[in-house]
Amino acid sequence: MIYRQIRTLKPVEQLRLVEMHRAPARILLTVVVRPLALETVVLVEADGRCYRDGIVLDWIMRIIAIRTLREFWQRHPQAEVSLRAWYAEVSNADWKTPAHIKAAQRDASFLANNRAVFNFKGNHFRLVVAVRYTQGLMFVRFVGTHAEYDRIDASTV
């Protein structure tokens, strides 16, 4: 989801996401959470910072170009489960350095230009992303088979 507190909601806490909508200007989303009778408004800026009452609460890891992943798994259905699992994990991640990625994804490799390479399905598929750690962004630069990966320069793609 959008903000760590929202991502970890449990039915016992009786918290519920009431409203989520796009907001103007620099605010990407406005999220309203109601724990019992209190209402909390969380603003998510386009750069990934989450605010409540003017205080930065958390950063989210946003993935740019999910459409690229969807198009790939439509052509290669055997990759869908792995890519969806990767997307779910990264969406909930708070990775600030390559070491954070490596701790969560042991098979990840790192290249020049802040590129990270992830292997899927026994190294049959590869995913290259450009990472902006300070902004919590991952840009999908390439997804393909291992043979296709061998034909590209992953540090410049």
Let me know the number of strands.
10
Largest sheet: 5 strands, antiparallel
Question: Rg, please?
Answer: 17 Å
The overall average pLDDT, rounded, is: 73
Helix-strand category: alpha+beta
What's the helix count?
A: 5
Distance between the termini: 29 Å
Q: Outline, from the CA principal axes?
A: globular
Element pattern in H and E = HEEEEEEHHHEEEEH
Low-confidence runs of at least 5 consecutive residues = 1-39
The percent range for strand residues is 35-45%
Helix content: 10-25%
Order the strands across the largest sheet as they lie in space.
1-2-3-4-5
Report on this model:
By secondary structure, the chain is an alpha+beta fold. It has a domain at about 60-150. It contains five helices and ten strands; from the N terminus they run H-E-E-E-E-E-E-H-H-H-E-E-E-E-H. The protein has a five-stranded antiparallel beta sheet, with no helix packed on it. The chain has a five-stranded mixed beta sheet with strand order 6-10-9-8-7. Strand 8 (about 115-120) and strand 9 (about 125-130) form a beta hairpin. The two termini are about 30 Å apart. About 20% of the residues are buried. GO terms for molecular function: endonuclease activity; RNA binding. Pfam families: HigB_toxin. InterPro entries: Toxin_HigB (IPR018669).
